[in-house]
Write a structure and sequence with these properties.
Blueprint (H helix, E strand, L loop, with lengths): L12 E4 H4 L17 H11 L3 E5 H4 L6 H18 L5 E3 L18 H20 L4 E5 L4 E2 L7 H21 L5 E5 L8 E2 L4 H8 L8 E3 L3 H5 L5 H10 L7 E2 L18 H12 L11 E3 L9 H27 L1 H11 L14 H9 L4 H5 L5 H12 L5
Parallel strand pairs: 1-2, 1-10, 2-3, 3-4, 4-6, 6-8, 9-10
Antiparallel strand pairs: 5-7
The protein binds 5-thio-alpha-D-glucopyranose and manganese (II) ion (2 copies).
Length: 394
């Protein structure tokens, strides 16, 4: 089907090994799909037009494997990458599965657990560097509490900072030019996870010793679970130069972390997200990998997994085409131009205080009733967005 929506590596789509490798287990039932051999994952992703794969240390090297076993597995995987042309843009550390992390990793009350977590992260970063990754994601899934009797949250945040400061300084000491991308989530698996949203993370980053090498990895599901806007979270990160990575998926508000196929829920949110990322409307675009952190429904067999993967990528491209058409629509441009118009050159007055600009502001004839008199035409504008999204226009 040559409709222009089938992906190619130039589209920069990536999948985590844990995403297409997800076997359908949930808290109420075990796996429903057989483990897909790593080599087949690579072959199938390359065949589907993906650009790369991302991984946790233990997606590739089993927990506790010795050095010889590790090296063999890594060599084999690198051969698979070379054969398929896939790259590994991002690597991360599993700091949540082993029982040692039952009370957290970087925020565990026991300093030995924190030390173990930092050491494990160092090994995972080494692995990422060996595979060519330039971004290291930190998702603190176990960094939280069920009861705040356990510790003072201020200590937890301080320990989190110490661990990241340590890892940043060590990374620089190795001469590696890596970027760390911090991923927020409000809850699950913990009752409450520290630094619950991308906004919390952005402030936390501003308190780090090497904040310049740290940014965020917002996930659609994690912002939508509590009903927040992913578009606004991503926009804030882009606006301050901190969108280092992104986890695309689908989610309904108020549910458990569903990690659904991208765009399969909240198509309108996905439309405006893609529009933002692509830089339509003349704004700077996001140019990093477009990572799908999602998995196939539990109802699916392996064929369904590849349907899922292709669906994520096609939906992104379809939404990009729809969003481009929206921004090129003359009626859209006219409504936006009218709402942003500045015929009297007022906007520059607010760009930086001076005594002169304050005086000019005071002298400005501003009639609130007149300013309030005209509707903004957002009903029409939104209907135009919906008609482009539905494919009924342009
Ligand atoms: C886990 C989590 C994701 C994170 C991954 C990176 S692991 O699947 O649900 O949101 O991005 O650690
Ligand atoms: Mn994620
Ligand atoms: Mn998720």
């Amino acid at each position: 089907m040559a409709d222009g929506f089938d992906p190619t590596p130039a589209d920069r789509f990536t999948f985590g090994l844990w995403t297409v490798g997800n076997r359908g287990a949930d808290p109420f039932g075990g796996p429903v799909r057989a483990k897909i051999p790593l080599r087949r994952i690579l072959d199938k992703l390359a065949e589907a037009g993906a650009h790369g794969v991302n991984l946790h240390d233990n997606d590739l090297v089993p927990f506790g494997a010795g050095a010889a076993e590790r090296d063999l597995i890594v060599a084999d995987f690198k051969q698979g990458l070379a054969d398929t042309g896939l790259v590994v843009p991002m690597a991360t550390t599993n700091l949540f599965s082993h029982p040692v992390f039952r009370d957290g990793a970087f925020t565990a009350s026991d300093p030995k657990v924190r030390a173990y977590a930092v050491r494990k992260a160092m090994s995972a970063i080494e692995l990422g560097v060996e595979l060519g990754a330039s971004t290291i994601v930190f998702w603190g899934g176990r960094e939280g509490t069920e009861t705040d009797a356990a510790r003072d949250c201020r200590d937890a945040i301080g320990w989190f900072r110490q661990c990241l400061d340590f890892l940043c300084a060590w990374t620089k000491d190795q001469g590696w030019e890596l970027r760390f991308a911090l991923e927020a989530k409000p809850n699950e698996p913990r009752g409450d996870i520290y630094l619950a949203t991308t906004g919390h993370m952005l402030h936390f980053i501003s308190t780090l010793e090497h904040g310049e090498m740290c940014g965020v990895n917002p996930e659609v599901a994690h912002e939508n679970m509590p009903g927040l806007s992913m578009v606004h979270a991503v926009a804030q990160a882009m606006e301050c130069g901190k969108l280092f990575h992104i986890d695309l998926n689908g989610q309904r508000i108020g549910r458990y972390d569903q990690d659904l196929r991208f765009g399969s829920e909240d198509a309108k949110g996905a439309f405006f997200l893609v529009r933002l990322l692509e830089g339509f409307g003349g704004r700077p675009a996001y140019t990093g990998p477009l990572h799908f952190d999602a998995h196939a429904y539990r109802s699916e067999d392996e064929d369904g997994v590849w349907d899922f993967a292709k669906g994520c990528m096609r939906t992104y491209k379809i939404l990009a085409a729809r969003a481009r058409a929206f921004d090129q629509d003359a009626e859209v441009q006219q409504i936006l131009a009218a709402s942003h118009a500045d015929p009297d050159g007022v906007a520059p007055l607010l760009k930086g205080y001076s005594a002169a600009s304050a005086a000019a502001l005071a002298a400005l004839p501003l009639d609130p009733d007149a300013l309030a008199a005209t509707g903004k035409r957002y009903e029409r504008l939104d209907q135009l967005a919906m008609e482009h999204l539905f494919g009924a226009r342009g």
